[in-house]
Amino acid sequence: MRAFVTGANGFSAAHLIQALEQRGDSVVGLVRKSSDLARLAGSKVELVYGDLCDVDTLKTAMAGVDIVFHIAAYVELGIVNAAEMTRVNVDGTRAVLAAAQAAGVPKMVYCSTIGIFGDTQGRVIDETFERTQKDFSSAYDRTKYDAQQLVDRAAAAGFHVVSVLPSGIFGADDPHFGPVVKQFLKGGLKLWAGGDRVTGIVHVDDLATAMLLAAEKGKRGERYIISAGDMTTREMFALLSKESGVPAPAETPEAIVRLVGNLLDPIGRLFNWQPPLSRERVHYVYDRCVRVDGSKARQELGWQPRSIEETIRALVR
């Protein structure tokens, strides 16, 4: 099989490419000229340099491929460039869909997010859930929701595209929680916030497996939640502490966290700086709770992820 992968140098995409190559598949990967290619060291991927919104470049690169994996996205919370996020996440998805259909690609797998469901207020939901939150918690949620609508419409019009919706993606080279774990293991993380915050967990390699299964068995227009389960932040640090022997960080009082977030937010916007806390990040810690059931992927795709405990333990190893 010959596959085309957008955002090839990214965390999830690089692990997918590794899984594809281990199967003997050939891969064409889209990256920007400014991309850090460290994650692709040792890979045989054929790189194409270009912009995600350039339909002509995409169409040319997709010639002769059997499937497109659209993974590229602008992922960030807090102080973001909302216009650029819209361009990448929404306009980029529109361009990938247009190019794939114009190039006659028979299948596409789109990497979405459970964030499209909005705040479920702690209710555990599946793929049948109809979004009830009227607004959006972040520009990221909004742009991924809008992109999902484009994908759903393409599927309804006859294009074979399947969506995978991962929860929190974890792994040794995770760019989000990974640096936190490294700081913790060095003994440098003394304080944390929001111990009751619930996070869905999936190992990045299990996500790659799910995408391959979605390509093989997924039905046109279907959505598959990819989550092995969830855990509170307090439970995660307790497990990390047990595995490493490093004491779990103390929890900062909520009132202080909210105050600091409110103070740093306008400073970050004024100086175009991403503070460790902002109003949006505080909102995600205390006010928003999305919980999901990943049974459909297990039942329909035969997906068998490792446990959430094993995923967290692996961060220490």
Brief descriptors of the model:
alpha/beta; Rossmann fold; seven-stranded parallel sheet; three-stranded mixed sheet; 11 helices; 14 strands; 17% strand; globular; NAD-dependent epimerase/dehydratase family protein; Epimerase_deHydtase; NAD(P)-bd_dom_sf; NAD(P)-dependent_oxidoreduct
In a nutshell, what does this entry contain?
The protein has one domain (2-171, 199-231, 291-311): NAD(P)-binding Rossmann-like Domain (Rossmann fold, 3-Layer(aba) Sandwich).
Characterization of this structure:
This protein has 317 residues and is an alpha/beta fold. The chain has a single domain (2-171, 199-231, 291-311), classed as 3-Layer(aba) Sandwich (Rossmann fold). The protein is built from eleven helices and 14 strands. Strand 4 (67-70), helix 3 (82-102) and strand 5 form a beta-alpha-beta unit. Helix 2 (55-61) packs across helix 3 (82-102), helix 3 (82-102) packs parallel to helix 4 (139-156) and helix 7 (233-244) packs across helix 11. It is globular, with a radius of gyration of 19 Å.
Name of the level-1 CATH class: Alpha Beta
CATH architecture: 3-Layer(aba) Sandwich
Q: Based on Cα principal axes, name the global outline.
A: globular
Number of strands: 14
Instruction: Could you tell me the CATH topology label.
Output: Rossmann fold
Largest sheet: 7 strands, parallel
Q: Structural class from helices and strands?
A: alpha/beta
Strand content: 15-25%
CATH superfamily label: NAD(P)-binding Rossmann-like Domain
Structure annotation, total helices: 11
Query: Spans with pLDDT under 50 lasting ≥5 residues?
Result: none
How many domain modules?
1
